[in-house]
């Protein structure tokens, strides 16, 4: 049996960030993951990537995680270009406006998980347990987590960081609001005939947004093409050459001719928002608490901020010798992070509503809005500052 203060269920970005952020505290942590934390990565870029904002980069650097990221797998972007397909509306951002070396970094999800796992492995207050969960026995002051490998974890607080279909969330009974976005996201790696110039690009088409995320190679990008599900299914049925041609047309050839360099994968997009995040002895973070449309690339950042905020609160409560697993002390975290998540959910809903379809009036409103914003430096700076997590 392992007797700890906190059991983190889930070895993804949110769970590992929480464990790393508790380094140096007097809190003993068990991190439970069904799969091995660190996994080998191929030489070619993996399909699932995240745009890590500057606020989280600073946090990861302070936690000693950034140093474990291989430089050749970390792709800074210095510019952003967003435009409306077949419209005059567009907006550009660059790092000099923010007096920063870059606006953010594109990192493969598994590469970041590997770096977090390597950092956590150096901590003497974290025990990593690889197993699924058989059941959880909730108690007033102590909870027993029964693992499928017959091990047992006794803890004061269970943290559900176990993804969109969270076992912890279901076991605690936190209600959830969800809605099908009606979009399917297609991810792939592409090669462009013109260099991407460290520019993250996003074009809004009538059937959904397309993001081009620059990778380390100046001619490689990762794409997230979120389309109405019928259109996504049509695109997935195209051969590689026809699919690449459709990409070139969608981007107005801004990066030249596009060639597909990987397989294509797809997944449906669903909004999820837990209406309760904390109870006596339990709390959820990351995708267990919320999933949003990827059009702004903020899902991973939101989950990492959940983890950092929870770590700050737990450290404070531990230093004050207060019962950190009690709901009354978890409430400030729940209120603050639920508010941030709801703002992001609402913003994504607003963007999707505004930018979908090709109604002439909506296109005019979008065009005027983008051009006006592009010409108001203070407004542009506020928008990019929020995107960078500040």
From TrEMBL:
Mind telling me which SUPFAM superfamilies this protein's record contains?
FAD/NAD(P)-binding domain
- All copies of the FAD-binding domain together span 3-320
Keyword list, A-Z:
FAD, Flavoprotein, Monooxygenase, Oxidoreductase
Q: Which InterPro entries match?
A: FAD-bd, FAD/NAD-bd_sf, Ubi_Hdrlase_CS, UbiH/COQ6, UbiH/COQ6_monooxygenase
**UniProt pathway:** Cofactor biosynthesis; ubiquinone biosynthesis
Needed cofactors, names only, are: FAD
Source species, domain of life: Bacteria
PROSITE patterns in alphabetical order: UBIH (PS01304)
Return the similarity comment: Belongs to the UbiH/COQ6 family.
Q: What is this protein called?
A: FAD-binding protein
Q: What is the lineage of its organism?
A: Bacteria, Pseudomonadati, Pseudomonadota, Gammaproteobacteria, Alteromonadales
